Automatic annotation (TrEMBL):
Record flagged with keyword Transmembrane: yes
Origin superkingdom: Eukaryota
GO CC terms of this entry: membrane
Keyword Membrane carried by entry: yes
Organism whose genome encodes this protein: Callipepla squamata
The protein's name in its UniProt record: Transmembrane 4 L6 family member 4
Topology within the bilayer: Multi-pass membrane protein
Subcellular locations according to the entry: Membrane
């Protein structure tokens, strides 16, 4: 119960923070709100793209991987349901078959 509410809280707070980090990193390219005359007026740390790569790309890729995990779990559920519906594969002494498939 606590884990689910914690995950929901994290999701709600991380997405706006990710967008904020991306915007702030972009704004750092404009010192004083003006276009820099040359690249010497921009700090070296801006070129590391911490907000864009660290927060933006990696955060949104983790959301994508979480979605892939949900799809994988759904696929596993469907395959398991089909397997339960078919029943076990048994050896009747001469061949392997699904004895409960039609019943």
């Amino acid at each position: 119960m606590c884990t689910g509410s914690c995950a929901k809280c994290l999701g709600i707070t991380l997405i706006p923070l990710t967008v904020l980090c991306i915007v702030v990193n972009i704004l750092l390219f404009f010192p004083g709100g003006k276009v820099a005359e040359n690249n010497d007026h921009i700090t070296d740390e801006v070129w590391y793209f911490g907000g864009i790569v660290g927060s933006g790309v990696l955060m949104f890729s983790s959301i994508i991987f979480a979605a892939v995990g949900v799809v994988g779990a759904g696929y596993c559920f469907v395959v398991s349901a089909v397997a339960i519906n078919k029943g076990p594969k048994c050896n009747d002494g001469t061949q392997w078959l699904y004895p409960f498939k039609d019943g």
